[in-house]
From TrEMBL, chain A:
Protein known as: Ribosome biogenesis protein WDR12 homolog
Domain of life (superkingdom): Eukaryota
Job description of the protein: Required for maturation of ribosomal RNAs and formation of the large ribosomal subunit.
Major subcellular location class: nucleus
WD-type repeats, residues: 131-170, 171-209, 221-252, 292-332, 339-373, 377-419, 421-461
Domain NLE stretches: 43-104
UniProtKB/TrEMBL annotation, chain B:
Compositionally biased spans, kind Acidic residues: 148-162
WD repeats: 492-533
Family listed: Belongs to the WD repeat BOP1/ERB1 family.
Organism per entry: Clavelina lepadiformis
InterPro entries listed in its UniProt record: BOP1/Erb1 (IPR028598), BOP1_N_dom (IPR012953), WD40/YVTN_repeat-like_dom_sf (IPR015943), WD40_repeat_CS (IPR019775), WD40_repeat_dom_sf (IPR036322), WD40_rpt (IPR001680)
Protein name: Ribosome biogenesis protein BOP1 homolog
Keyword field: Nucleus, Repeat, Ribosome biogenesis, rRNA processing, WD repeat
């Protein structure tokens, strides 16, 4: 049995502890006691001297070690909760999921040198908060601080409050299934604005008045010639882009007011059936500010990189970044598989894409050299339909797949997800993590599940 | 060296030994050969055995010696030796000289009396002579070298005396038979001789001479009063010896010579050993030479030295005749030369080798004809007859018991057919070989063996040494041929009956499928959402085939149900397009039937072609469902196939006589039967993607027609029993044909009308096959529930053959009612494949 020298450290610091390690060794009789040299510094900080451990230790064993060490320090007495705290161990930039020796072999590290093991509090398992039922498949979901917005295949857009009560559902507006929804952050009083894109080629800018429990179709954004697949609103909430099956990306404004110079068009919607022929809606049309053409197939994901840059993923296997000021394509990253979903994280500065070959791939949209795919997360058994970064952590993301599973990932553990959320009984169509404490997912089982994610809480607490 | 034996006289010549005296021997006696004389001048008297008697070995110069045997049995031990100077009589048993007489004495005595010469018959004289004389005589016979030298020198000088010596010896011999009475005279006249005798008087030899019985056991005479016979044959009486023990004792005590007195049996007398005898005994006892004067280390005079001498030993010059050419030879040569000249003597003829014995070739047809090439080849390629198997234990007359069959086995053997038997006889056991009966099948077996040998055709098999690895074509690894579909991504569930046909629209967003209940569903490809369910077709009749119109500006789906082909606008995708499609169809005008001449022609055409006119669906539930046009047929429509432009499409009506294929034009709403005659049962038709070709697949052949020239271009021999499906490469030069006998054949149209490659990976019938529009992929689905995806790269280089590699077997569909995958089609843009199956599902593999 080979022994490894490891050194522990953590960046989470709130306590200062000095450890008498020799005492620990003498006292315990655990298999690693005699061979392990650990160095704990953390909020749950432990001594810096290296430990010698067996190569076959798992992260649970290391976890025990840390707990023992902390017990020795009497750190945990102050806060009884801490005794339940689990730690995750980061070795050579990757979370320890197998035995330490295998992990090191995979990484190609030497067993001779002292390993620096970083440890931190493990993400708690997301807990199921809410289950929202609907009539049809859920195609898009997004959370606000107070509301839940979801688009469905029954052509409706529904708003729930965070307690799970359905507040309002727009039955009119779209004539085809809604494919994506998005909130627009406006700071104008009580009113809320949101967008919904649909297969009927329209994007509707809605106005929601919580006090009246009413939604109103403000603008009908027309321009796409095929179904709108994805929407993305910029950080300030002034503009949004949409990707569509017609291979184009269009830029729109979100302003609720009539823009000067645009024509006010009254539209009469006629349904095909003569019997049901009636005037349905009065509305205003809005035309795109810009159309970005370059993709050769359906654009399945768009995301804002900055105020003037967006990136888009498409079924033509490419990720393209666009400069909105010039309307030019800036770069194009070519993959080998069609992209079903795309999200960009400001924290990690990485683009995550869900692919049809069951992988989640991480890309650096700004890098030109080297491998374009920085990492690929593999565990799903079906197409990854949706992927979203955590708003707080640069390492965390959530993905939904056709294999009915929502997974949370730490990008440092590409083979094993953090947690599998198996509440869905049918295909997961959309996930959302725009609110840091809640993960939402909607699927073909007509349900939206909300999971409370406490990782954000911890971070916040720390802050 | 010669030995002659007469009745009385033995004459011997004696071998010679090299003598140091030979250097003086320049003259030799005539009767000796020159060489022998040169080599041996010193005579060596070898002992030779004569009737068991050892003779003598003495070195002396002996000229001649003779055995004289006057009375056999009495005088045989005597030898007469002629030493030129002396004549010596020896007793050859004792090597004692009996008589020695110089020749000169003899010569002198010649004159006196012939009678005196009888030497042999002298009576032994009692020892009255002194010992000294005897000793001298002894030394006389043992000739010293000096004496020999003297002798030789004498001989040398007295060569002419030789004749007289011989005469002397002869005289001696003639005197043998002389009167005994003369002995006395001789003894008297020869005092020297008598001295010799006296010298030897008390030796046993002397006794022997008196007693002639010879060397016999004297016990034989124990009972007689005599002890033997003397020379005269008178008995010798035993001396009176009546000594008792007392006498013996007294004798012992008193006689000082008692210790050296021995009893002589032969004479029956006591004998006192002489001092010489004692000395001899002592010498013998101490292992020395019996003769004290013998010098074993006398110096050796080497007369044949290693020093080179100036003169040869024999310095005789060469004879004159050795220098003179031989006259005889000259004459002989002259004769031969003359003979050659005259031609009498001819040179020897060269030896002609014996002609080989020629046998008559019984089997050759004609000897003179040279053998043909094939005959020679046959001889050369002679194949020996196969060998018979060697007999085993079971063939033995006394096989081990385990080879003997039991009764049951014999019964079984008898019941078996003779061809099936392992052995053609039953092993039996016999005690001994002679009890073995004659083998009854011998002749038959030999006969059948002969038949086997000359009736059995034998062929030489050319064995080719090929590494089996080389025979396997070098195919690239499937992993290098990516992308291709590898796993099942989405399953489209919803149909309640088997899905016979699927079709993807040109954008790849929508999938249409039709099931046996007559329901067409439109699916969103990415999410497996069934967006539309189109009903309203003829109730309960299965949807045989559906196909999207490839024209991107038209949203139409051709659905073959029962006897009609329905054009459906599914109203998905681009709203502008499907609305435009509706408008377009509205704007179409049905061709007028009975108005003008053209109409009449149309009538004729319609009469020829059993196609009912097109009808528009203007309203109603069917219109709501999207039905736009109906094309009625007289028989069930099995397949519809669009032309690449999306204006024409063909429908197949198997078993409809000569109108099995109908071509329809969408823009003119017209139909026509392109063939006046239709061979076989048409299975499916296909348009060439770029050229005006129509592929018509009957059961076994695919015919290619040029629609413009209206002629048959090609007939592809598929080698299949029943074609099920056709698909054409988007380039248009390659065709795959699936058949119900599990094959998928690839045709290179430029290459041949026979399959370029045949894939037989399906276990059951191939139901559908398809090409990918963009990727070099093709696939086939079969009744075994599998979809097999193959890489089929077609190179623009005409010299390069297409690369066909099966890359993946996609499993997932269940086989129900022996039906598996019924249709498959590739996604237009992605390397994905859809397959519909009898388990009511459609699956997407990516």
């Amino acid at each position: 049995m080979s022994h490894l020298q490891v050194k522990f450290h953590t960046k989470q610091q709130s306590f200062r502890v000095s450890t008498n390690l020799s005492f620990f060794f003498n006292k315990t009789n655990t298999p690693y006691s005699a061979q392990k040299k650990l160095n704990f510094l953390s909020r749950y900080k432990v001594g810096e001297s290296p430990f010698s451990v067996l190569g076959s230790v798992l992260s649970s064993d290391l976890n025990e070690v840390i707990h023992k060490l902390l017990e020795e320090e009497e750190r945990l007495d102050e806060d009884s909760d801490k005794s339940q705290v689990e730690f995750d161990f980061l070795v050579a930039g990757e979370l320890l999921r197998s035995t330490l020796l295998e992990h090191i072999h995979d990484k190609g590290l030497s067993v001779e040198s002292v390993l620096l093991v970083e440890y931190f509090e493990k993400e708690n398992a997301p807990e199921l908060e809410l289950c929202l039922d609907h009539k049809d498949w859920m195609s898009g979901v997004q959370l606000d601080e107070d509301f839940i917005l979801a688009g469905s295949y029954d052509c409706s857009v529904t708003v729930w409050d965070r307690k799970g009560d359905e507040l309002v559902s727009s039955s009119v507006g779209h004539s085809e299934p809604v494919k994506d929804v998005a909130w627009i952050k406006h700071s104008k009083g009580d009113e809320k604005y949101f967008l919904s894109g649909s297969q009927d080629q329209n994007i509707i800018l809605w106005k929601y008045e919580p006090s009246l429990l009413k939604v109103k179709c403000l603008f009908r954004c027309k321009g796409h010639s095929k179904s709108v697949e994805c929407l993305s609103v910029n950080r300030s909430g002034t503009k949004f882009v949409s990707g569509s099956w017609d291979c184009s990306i269009k830029l729109w404004t979100t302003s609720p007011d009539l823009e000067p110079g645009t024509k006010e068009v009254e539209e009469v919607e006629k349904l095909s059936s003569r019997k049901r022929q009636k005037v349905e809606k009065k509305g205003y049309h809005r035309t795109p500010k810009m159309t970005l053409c370059g993709h050769t197939e359906a654009v399945s994901g768009v995301s804002w990189l900055s105020e003037h840059e967006i990136c888009s993923g498409s079924w033509d296997h490419t990720i393209r970044t666009w400069d909105l000021r010039t309307g030019e394509e800036v770069s194009c990253l070519r993959g080998s598989k069609a992209i079903t979903s795309l999200d960009y994280s400001n924290l990690s500065r990485m683009v995550a894409t869900g692919n049809v070959d069951r992988h989640i791939r991480l890309w650096d949209p700004r890098s030109e050299e080297g491998a374009v795919v920085k990492s690929s997360l593999t565990s799903h058994q079906g197409w990854v339909t949706s992927v979203r970064w955590s708003p707080l952590s640069p390492h965390l993301l959530v993905s939904g797949s056709l294999d009915n599973v929502v997974k949370t990932w730490d990008t440092r553990s590409p083979k094993t997800p953090l947690y599998d959320l198996t509440s869905h009984t049918d295909k997961v169509m959309c996930v959302d993590w725009s609110q840091s404490e809640t993960i939402a997912s909607g699927g073909a089982d007509n349900k939206i599940f909300l999971f409370s994610s406490n990782s954000g809480n911890i971070e916040q607490k720390l802050e | 060296m010669s030995c002659a034996l007469s009745s009385d006289v033995i004459e011997c010549s004696v071998s010679r030994r090299p003598s140091r005296l030979s250097r003086y021997n320049t003259v030799r006696p005539e009767n000796y050969k020159e060489r022998e004389w040169q080599e041996n001048t010193k005579l060596c008297l070898e002992f030779f055995e004569f009737k068991g008697i050892q003779i003598l070995r003495r070195y002396c110069t002996i000229y001649e010696f003779k055995f004289k045997c006057f009375i056999p049995g009495e005088c045989r031990r005597c030898i007469l030796i002629n030493c030129l100077k002396y004549i010596i009589f020896c007793n050859i048993s004792t090597m004692k000289v009996l008589k020695k007489r110089s020749i000169s004495d003899l010569k002198s005595d010649n004159a006196s009396s012939k009678d005196e010469v009888d030497l042999f018959h002298t009576k032994p004289i009692d020892s009255e002579d002194d010992d000294e004389d005897g000793n001298t005589s002894e030394s006389d016979i043992l000739l010293s070298d000096d004496e020999v030298g003297e002798v030789e020198s004498e001989y040398e000088t007295s060569e002419d005396e030789e004749g007289s010596v011989r005469e002397e010896i002869d005289k001696l011999i003639t005197l043998e038979g002389g009167d005994i009475s003369k002995k006395q005279q001789l003894t008297i006249k020869q005092p020297e001789l008598s001295k010799i005798y006296t010298d030897d008087a008390d030796t046993s030899d002397e006794e022997d001479l008196r007693n002639t019985v010879g060397n016999i056991p004297m016990e034989w005479y124990d009972d007689f009063p005599h002890i033997g016979y003397d020379l005269d044959g008178k008995t010798i009486m035993k001396p009176i010896r009546n000594q008792d023990e007392l006498d013996k004792f007294l004798n012992k005590m008193e006689n000082p010579d008692f210790w050296k007195t021995i009893y002589d049996k032969s004479t029956a007398q006591d004998h006192v050993l002489t001092p010489e005898e004692l000395e001899l005994v002592n010498r013998l006892k101490s292992g020395k030479f019996y003769d004290g004067k013998m010098d074993p280390y006398e110096p050796y005079i080497d007369f044949f030295t290693n020093e080179k001498m100036i003169h040869p030993v024999n310095n005789i010059p060469e004879h004159k005749r050795s220098f003179i050419p031989s006259v005889l030879e000259k004459r002989k040569v002259g004769k031969l030369v003359h003979a050659i000249k005259m031609g009498i003597l001819k040179p020897r003829k060269p030896k002609v080798p014996d002609e080989e014995v020629k046998f008559y070739d019984l089997w050759s047809d004609n000897k003179d004809d040279p053998k043909t090439h094939s005959e020679l080849a046959r001889q050369k390629m002679h194949i020996p007859a196969p060998k018979l198997t060697l007999p085993g234990h079971e063939h033995s007359y006394n096989p081990p018991p385990e080879y003997l069959p039991t009764k049951d086995e014999i019964e079984e053997w008898k019941q078996e057919e003779p061809e099936d038997r392992k052995l053609n006889f039953v092993p039996k056991k016999f005690n001994c070989l002679r009890k073995v009966p004659q083998y009854s099948n011998y002749v038959q077996e030999r006969f059948s063996r002969c038949l086997d040998l000359y009736l059995c055709p034998r062929q030489r098999k050319m064995k080719v040494n090929i590494d089996p690895e080389d025979l396997i074509p070098k195919l690239p690894k499937p992993s290098d041929l990516r992308p291709f579909p590898t796993f099942q991504a989405i399953c489209y569930r919803g149909h309640q009956a088997i899905v016979r046909s699927i079709s993807v629209d040109h954008t790849g967003q929508w999938l249409a499928s039709g099931d046996d209940n007559g329901i067409v569903r439109i699916w969103e490809v990415a999410t497996a959402r069934c967006v539309k369910e189109i009903t309203g077709f003829i109730a309960e009749s299965p949807i045989k085939c559906l196909s999207w119109c490839p024209n991107p500006s038209v949203s139409l789906l051709a659905v073959a149900v029962s006897k009609t082909v329905v054009m459906v606008n599914p109203s998905v995708g681009d709203r502008l397009i499907y609305q435009a499609t509706d408008n377009f169809i509205q704007s179409l005008e049905l061709p007028e039937m009975n108005t003008d001449k053209e109409g009449e022609e149309d009538m004729k055409q319609t009469k020829r072609s059993p196609v009912s006119p097109w009808t528009k669906v203007q309203s109603g539930v069917q219109y709501q469902d999207g039905h736009r046009l109906l094309i009625e047929h007289t028989k069930e429509v099995s397949k519809v196939a669009w032309h690449g432009k999306g204006d024409y499409f063909a429908s197949t009506l198997p078993g409809n006589g000569n109108a099995q294929v109908l071509l329809h034009q969408l823009t003119k709403l017209r139909s026509q039967n392109p063939f006046s005659k239709c061979k076989g049962a048409v299975q499916c038709v296909l348009f060439h993607p770029s050229r005006p070709f129509l592929f018509v697949a009957t059961q076994r052949y695919v015919r290619v027609y040029n629609l413009v020239k209206q002629e048959l271009i090609k007939k592809l021999m598929t080698n299949a029993k029943w074609i099920s499906s056709l698909a054409i490469h988007p380039e248009g030069d390659n065709l795959i044909v699936g058949s119900y006998d599990c094959r998928l054949s690839w045709f290179d149209m430029d290459l041949s009308t026979k399959p370029f490659h045949t894939l037989t990976y399906h276990k059951k019938a191939v139901r559908a096959c398809c090409f990918h529009r963009k990727y070099p992929l093709f696939a086939s689905g079969g009744d075994d529930g599998n979809v097999i995806v193959s890489h089929g790269m077609v190179y623009s280089d005409l010299m390069q053959n297409p690369l066909i590699v099966p890359v993946k077997v996609l499993k997932g569909h269940r086989v129900e009612r022996n039906l598996g995958v019924l249709d498959c089609c590739f996604h237009p843009n992605q390397p994905w494949i859809f397959s519909s199956a009898a388990d009511n599902t459609i699956r997407l593999f990516t």
